[in-house]
Amino acid sequence: MKQGMKIGIVCYPTFGGSGVLATELGMALSDKGYEVHFITYEQPVRLSQSFHPNIYFHEVKVPTYPLFAFPPYETALASAMVNVILNNNLDLLHLHYAIPHASAAFFARQILKKSGRDIPFITTLHGTDITLVGKDPTYAPVVTFSINESDAITAVSENLKEETLRSFKIEKEIHVIPNFVDIKRFHQTDKDHFKQMLAPAGERILVHVSNFRAVKRVEDVIKIFYNVKKEIPSKLLMIGDGPERQKVEDLARELDIYSDIRFLGKQEQISEILSISDLFLLPSATESFGLSALEAMACGVPVISTNAGGLPEINQQGKTGFLSNVGDIEDMSRHALHILSDDDQLKLFKKAAIAQAKKFEKQHIIPMYEKLYSEVVMKCKVSE
């Protein structure tokens, strides 16, 4: 891949896995000398944490008119893509999350072709764009078409690739490029003073990170913690926010454990919180990959998760943590107690978690994207 390639990245700028991965990828590419242009409706969360001279942010503005009950974001996005591509002479678009980014890119491409300009685009599938939203009959035909119109398709796990092929008539190869973690940012650090503040009596610290949607089964986190706390003095840190938050706060009060839980809301410096944690809980109904679990493991935190989606591809049963069936709170509670009940055993799990996370270090994954970028751009030039 040539140095100085100009790449447009289209993503959701939220705390969700697709937005985090897209932002981390853009920053990593910028550090390697590529010019990266983010095109989205807000500055991505992690992009604001540090300055990168090769990164540019282009805000998609969606005007509101009384005629529109729902402002047409896809149309505004397509127009923004056209403007950014022409004004900055981009070489490639990389779309994260198929809906509506892939269809908007197709629309933008057709506009550009009218003026003799073409640009290839790659679509990365992240999970619910396929497993949940994409399957809805309202979106399925457009999702299928726009994915197939992509010059290349990637998925963040083997499980997601298989699910996509089962659910849609995909006519092209799907390349599996897993999510990655920046070990320089996510690693064990000495935050004993912080830990002492949250757990003054030496309690175990459990943690959960998500967008608090129903698919994350956040109530199960509270129930698992309730079972653990009955046996071992513990604290629970809940990081994130979303539609299920009030429900889980009410459940915590009902179980009389609210005083031992900290609802920290959305946090940017997650690595510091993970560094003081002993166990990560992720009882999701589905996870295409489980990036939050990988970041926890990089910080030396073993994981209790379900065996849904791509989680078995990162969480090693009995080594980095344990996997249970969705909704099996008793099994997850039992495994949590097994890890937390013995200091030496906890250390072994922590060590194994770090070793597993290093396999997904960004230096191993970024070249996979670079290779694909180079192949797609070269193929586009040959066909011109």
Labels describing this entry:
Rossmann fold, alpha/beta, six-stranded parallel β-sheet, seven-stranded parallel β-sheet, 384 residues, 14 helices, 2 domains
Named at the architecture level, the CATH assignment of the largest domain is: 3-Layer(aba) Sandwich
Note the beta-strand portion: 15-25%
The tally of strands reads 13
Taken in chain order, the helices and strands follow as EHEEHEHEHHEHEHEHEHEHEHEEHHH
Strand arrangement within the widest β-sheet reads 3-2-1-4-5-6-7
Number of domains: 2
> By helix and strand content, what is the structural category?
alpha/beta
What are the low-pLDDT stretches, counting only 5+ consecutive residues below 50? Answer: none
CATH topology of the largest domain: Rossmann fold
Radius of gyration computed on alpha carbons: 22 Å
Quaternary structure classification: single chain
Largest sheet: 7 strands, parallel
CATH superfamily of the largest domain: Glycogen Phosphorylase B
Number of discrete helical segments: 14
The first-level CATH class of the largest domain is given as Alpha Beta
Percent helix among the residues? 40-55%
Q: Which of globular, elongated, flat, extended, rod-shaped describes the shape?
A: elongated
- Average pLDDT reading: 91
Distance between the termini: 19 Å
Question: Describe it for me?
Answer:
With 384 residues, the protein is α/β, with parallel strands linked by helices. It folds into two domains: 6-180 and 361-383, Rossmann fold, CATH 3.40.50.2000; 192-358, Rossmann fold, CATH 3.40.50.2000. Helices cover 43% and strands 16% of the residues. The chain is built from 14 helices and 13 strands. The protein has helices spanning 17-31, 73-88, 98-114, 128-131, 140-149, 158-167, 192-198, 218-231, 245-254, 270-274, 291-298, 329-340, 343-358, 362-383, and strands at residues 6-10, 35-40, 55-59, 92-96, 121-125, 152-155, 174-176, 204-209, 234-239, 261-265, 279-282, 303-306, 321-324. The strands form two sheets. The chain has a seven-stranded parallel beta sheet with strand order 3-2-1-4-5-6-7, sandwiched between helices. Strands 10-9-8-11-12-13 form a six-stranded parallel beta sheet, sandwiched between helices. Helix 3 (98-114) crosses helix 5, helix 8 runs parallel beside helix 9 (245-254) and helix 8 packs across helix 12 (329-340). The longest helix has 22 residues, at 362-383. It is elongated and about 70 Å long.
